[in-house]
Amino acid sequence: MATVSFLHLTDLHVSDPSIADPDLLSDTDATLRRVVDMIAAMKDRPAFAVVSGDLTNHGDIASYRHLRARLSGVGVPFVYALGNHDTRAGFYRGMLDRDHDLDEPYRHDVLVGGVHVVVLDSSVPGRIGGALDEASFAFLDRALENHPGAAKIVVVHHAPALDETGQLAWETLGQEDSARLGAAIAGRNVAGILCGHVHVDRVSLWNGVPVVIGTGLHNSFDPLHSGGLRAVAGAGFALCTLRPAGLGVTFVPLPSDRRELGILTEATVRAFR
User: Which CATH architecture best describes the domain 4-270?
Assistant: First the structure.
């Protein structure tokens, strides 16, 4: 296979600027404009860009339409996944002009730039945490049979659980789903799994496959803080390079003073579902 470069964005949390959003900790629209300008200025054009969920902050149609307009002139194919802040109906109507089967999970696969991208929908309406249903695993099994000669990238908003104790339940897929995902991709030429949700830059080697999480464009969580979550200013995306030898990831942080934006107590965080 040839070397292919692509982008990984996540957790855009965009809101329609005409509607006040008191839940935003930062000006995500301004941050998105900066990122779009950075992508447009790249001399070596990426083959595509993955956005691994939380495209909008509240899942409303107007915000998806605003996001669609923001990205329309980038000149790079975008591959989207949905996260817990998204709504399927809002996404289908606002991004795809679709008016049927509005409750259906958004799972799909595409060959782009010679890379086979398989997207799963781990969003669960009304929940922060994520899950994959029986239909998702059946879809994954079928999709992984497609394009057998191409390296595969799996995109899912909630990362798999790395072990039984390291993360809280809302942070990842559940233990059973994680184990099934690991079994499903074993030996299937999966070069990486792209995720979001927890607003940190992190790469973990899981069952021999790199799991890549990005900070996103809303805020960052301080990895040195314990006993809850400390939100700080911070945003970025990743430049990914898929070589015959494997996946490389270079994080592209935006300049930030890392000022504190808020703190959630341990009790609050543990109560998330």
Answer: 4-Layer Sandwich (3.60)
